[in-house]
Design goal:
The complex is a heterodimer. The N terminus and C terminus of chain A are likely disordered. In chain A, helix 4 runs antiparallel to helix 11. Chain A has a two-stranded antiparallel sheet. Helices cover 73% and strands 2% of the residues of chain A. Chain A is mostly helical. Chain B is an alpha/beta fold. In chain B, strands 8-9-10-3-11-12 form a 6-stranded mixed beta sheet, with helices on both faces. In chain B, strands 2-1-4-5 form a 4-stranded antiparallel beta sheet, with helices on one face. The chains are: A mainly alpha, B alpha/beta. Chains A and B meet through helix 9 and helix 10 of A and helix 2, strand 8, helix 3 and helix 5 of B. The structure holds adenosine-5'-diphosphate (ADP) and magnesium ion. Adenosine-5'-diphosphate (ADP) binds next to strand 2 and helix 1 of chain B. Chain A: Its main location: membrane.
């Protein structure tokens, strides 16, 4: 933010008063050395991979393959839905955990203790195999079916990932709720707002500023964790890539391809996270941080105006 | 005009083992400006918070507009009020805090319309119109779109006053409304409060601004150690305190 103001300066009228200082800037030789070393190592790596026994051509051939694209779609769908369960569950658990009612807060504590304390892969297997415990699912007149028909791979994956995520999101949300000044709740109550309205309208929107950055991390983590559900027979990006790998013989190549897709998806998510953070920062600082596009524009205009001054 | 808006009879309040209010008796008449002074820690804020149900009274009786605070009396039994009933009573009592407590994620205008819309169900358009009138009244009509972080402390406190007024309260509580302000900003807030007093609002004001108490106040109470030490007409108490503790306190702040 501050450097924007600095670069803004030349565009405006130059400051009056004493002449601006023109000094020789400090040279950072260390940076040049580090850059050269890094480039060297990168070059060696590229050389090693390029000369390895890898059929690079297979990657572009399959990059937009139908099954790969289906896999990408499934991965995204699973990420979004699991995170939705995770976030809603996390908020509810966090509120329960902070509640004055000892019963609800103990239930939340126990849930978090269990789901954070066991590996998500184990949880996925347990959901998958729950048919040994419950042979039928019977919701009275509403729904009745055999467990194995009810618990499809998709539902297994969704519940496994979502319920696990809720435990992590609960801790993130709790920290966010605790970060909001007590005076806010007091002011809302003094205006006659109920507990739930105070929470929804006043506390949670402010907690979001603390909650969003780690949640962005969780989304990115979730996107990668979805690759575990191949273990419960759910087909997503990695599983499709592996399948193509075995049938076409390009095993390693397809793993690289999957990695490239994961990188693309996580990069897109990071950009989205930036904008959401910016939205929830409103009111907390005097000026919103610029969007990347605005940043580029100010740099460009300041460059051109600097040239103008020089000419 | 002689009915009591607030009536306290032997009000006690303790936090754990610490007794903060040790039997407060006082009466705030409808339409008067009632000033509460006293050293830090004497229980002034706690008493204000009791009036607004933010703290529960442990013993004694506290009435606002003739109704018992926090409890319902049936025969000689007391029943605790439900949260929703407490919320209903708070609508009629405006409160202004030392640290403003504006909602930082909302503009000044949004702060003012929040409670009327969310609590009373007033339409947004109607609430906005009224909010603009109130912001004009506190001299901030041009700041409606600003976030609290873009306003000075004095401006924030005036928005906070407008926010409380938007619920059309019958009683306003001020807890050291100017204590967190730079000296040059105090005047604007006091002007708004003076204007409010002239309009006939019943106000209970905890303050260290003795000039305000003298000019605007109708009654004044000096509290120390959780009890009322001295009370009366502000001009009389401030110029001619009877009690030794009042004298020593005033000699320090004046
Ligand atoms: N929630 C609380 N828990 C424990 N002690 C409190 C609480 N609120 C206030 N107190 C204590 O009550 C006493 C009176 O506080 P307060 O009413 O804020 O005084 P004043 O507003 O006159 O400065 C202080 O000693 C304070 O520490
Ligand atoms: Mg106080």
């Amino acid at each position: 933010m501050t450097d924007i103001k600095k670069t803004d300066r030349p565009a405006d009228t130059p400051p009056a008063g004493p002449e601006a200082i023109r000094a020789v800037p400090v040279r950072h030789y260390g940076r040049y050395v580090a850059a050269i070393v890094a480039l060297g190592i990168l070059g060696l790596l590229i050389w090693a991979f390029a000369n390895g026994d890898i059929n690079w051509g297979a990657i572009p051939d399959y990059f937009f393959n139908d099954r790969i694209l289906t896999g990408v779609r499934e991965t995204l769908l699973l990420t979004v839905l699991s995170m939705l369960i995770g976030i809603v569950g996390g908020v509810v658990l966090a509120v329960m955990r902070l509640s004055k009612n000892p019963v609800t807060s103990s239930i939340a504590w126990f849930y978090i203790w269990f789901f954070r304390g066991t590996p998500v892969l184990v949880q996925l297997f347990v959901w998958f195999n729950l048919g040994f415990v419950f042979e039928y699912i019977n919701l009275g007149p509403v729904y009745k079916d055999e467990w194995s028909d009810f618990m499809t791979p998709f539902l297994t994956a969704l519940l496994g990932l979502g319920l696990n995520e809720a435990a992590y999101m609960a801790e993130i949300c709790r920290a966010g709720l605790l970060a909001v000044d007590e005076g806010q709740t007091e002011a809302a109550h003094a205006l006659g707002m109920s507990h739930s309205k105070t929470l929804r309208r006043i506390v949670i929107p402010q907690a979001m500023r603390v909650i969003v950055p780690p949640t962005g991390n969780e989304v990115i983590n979730m996107l990668k964790t979805t690759s575990l559900v191949a273990a419960v027979q759910y087909y997503e990006l990695l599983r499709f890539a592996q399948d193509i790998g075995t049938t076409s013989g390009a095993t390693v190549e397809m793993l690289f391809l999957a990695a490239a897709w994961y990188l693309i998806l996580t990069s897109v998510l990071s950009v989205g996270q930036y904008y959401i953070e910016r939205y929830y920062a409103r009111g907390s600082s005097r000026q919103l941080p610029p969007t990347p596009w605005q940043r580029v524009r100010t740099h460009l205009t300041s460059l051109s105006s600097r040239k103008g001054v020089a000419a | 005009m002689t009915t009591a808006m607030v009536k306290a009879e032997g009000v006690h309040k303790s936090f754990g083992h610490v007794q903060v209010l040790k039997g407060i008796d006082l009466e705030v008449k409808s339409g008067e400006v009632f000033c509460l002074i006293g050293p830090s820690g004497s229980g002034k804020s706690t008493f204000l918070r009791c009036i607004n149900h933010l703290e529960k009274v442990n013993a004694g009786r506290l009435y606002v507009d003739g109704e018992l605070v926090g409890y319902r009396q049936k025969g000689d039994k007391l029943y605790e009020l439900k949260d929703s009933e407490v919320a209903l009573k708070r609508r009629d009592i405006g409160m202004v805090f030392q640290r403003f407590n504006l909602f930082p994620h909302m503009t000044a205008l949004e702060n003012v319309i929040e409670a009327p819309v969310q609590v009373k169900g007033v339409s947004k358009a109607q609430a906005r119109e009224r909010a603009m009138q109130l912001l004009d009244r506190v001299g901030l009509g041009d700041k409606a779109g600003s976030y609290p972080s873009q306003l000075s402390g004095g401006q924030q406190q005036r928005v906070a006053i407008a926010r409380a007024l938007a619920m059309d309260p019958k009683l306003m509580l001020f807890d050291e409304p100017t204590s967190a302000l730079d000296p040059e900003l105090v005047g604007d807030v006091l002007d708004v409060m003076r204007d409010l007093a002239e309009s006939g609002m019943t106000m209970v004001v905890v303050t260290h601004e003795m000039g305000f108490a003298r000019e605007v106040g109708d009654s004044l109470v000096f509290m120390d150690g959780g009890v009322v030490v001295e009370s009366g007409n502000p001009r009389e108490v401030l110029t001619n305190p009877q009690h030794e503790r009042t004298q020593s306190f005033l000699s320090k702040v004046l």
